[in-house]
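I'll show an entry:

:::
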Amino acid sequence: MNATEILEKLVSFDSVVGAPNGAIVSWINDYLASHGISAKVLAGPEGDRSNLFATIGRVDMPGYILSGHMDVVPAEVDEWSSSPFRLRREGDMLFGRGTTDMKGFLAAALAAVPQLVTAGLKRPIHLAFSYDEEAGCRGAPHLIAQLPTLCAPPLGAIIGEPSNMRAVLAHKGKAAARVTIRGRAGHSSRPDLGLNAIHALAAVLNAAIDQTARLSQGPFDTAFEPPYSSLQAGVIAGGKAINIIPDLAMLELEARAISGVNPRDLLGPIRKAADALRDNGFAVEWDEMSAYPALALAARSPLAHLMQELTSETPLSAVSYGTEAGLYQAAGIDALICGPGDIGRAHKPDEFIFESELAACQRFIEALGQRCAA
């Protein structure tokens, strides 16, 4: 199968984030087995989702990880020109959910497998395919934790998020949380007898707004846009009717941190404001939804140098979106981003990738294989 045929199959699996992914994992596992590769299917704690890890070459030698996620964001069918889970071609463009983010990279990697198998690799190439990346990199930590039992310490990890096949050395970290305030319901004519959860939540929202303003004052890292850490409230809900004192209110917020800043710490003032509501009789729940660290790989690192040689492009210093690369670096593995497609096409109706981009990615992976065979 060529890369386009593989992509067509991968897109046909509606492996939406947060849903069971057994079908796509099984197909990839069978494909690898047809080329003599025995993959490890690593079940996550959810019980209905799995990571997949496979090695081409010797597991006892240091090699390189090709990392990608199998999940995609949801697709509103009415907003698409065709079925989002059926690959559609228009000239060089291939449309479908996940074509760019990031089943295109998976397809290119799988299409390169036959060549890698026969290349006589002296250093292995590993395929590390994760689940629920779109929910804040929930699957990858479980895979990374098992790496010491799966392979020798890797020389580096290449995360194939869309970057126009240009290596990226840094990205921001992220932490997201949900705060739930529970008060006491009652008739709106007697506010003295109730506890208004929406009014209480206003203090938490104000703390988030104040923190947003503080972060815009620095510290700064001009590699990023914007060049500072940020915070925003993204979802708010509460109340049942205008004449009922609301006993429940909820806020979801996220922080994105420049390198060297712990994204969880940025949420500290908001959590402090929420906890203070307990003194006024409210019940408060704070749930971390996701968190991953920033990535910062030195431009002089061996992995960055290798990528510049293989892509003939100077690595880009940073992007503001996040990936699993920071998790690999936190585990002591040099990591960077490099994959086909443009991030500007991701998470949109009529998402697409150019067939020529798939081919370029496959050539890159095969070139990496030649280095590992030398």
About this structure: Residues 176 and 254 are 4 Å apart (CA to CA). The chain has ten helices and 17 strands.
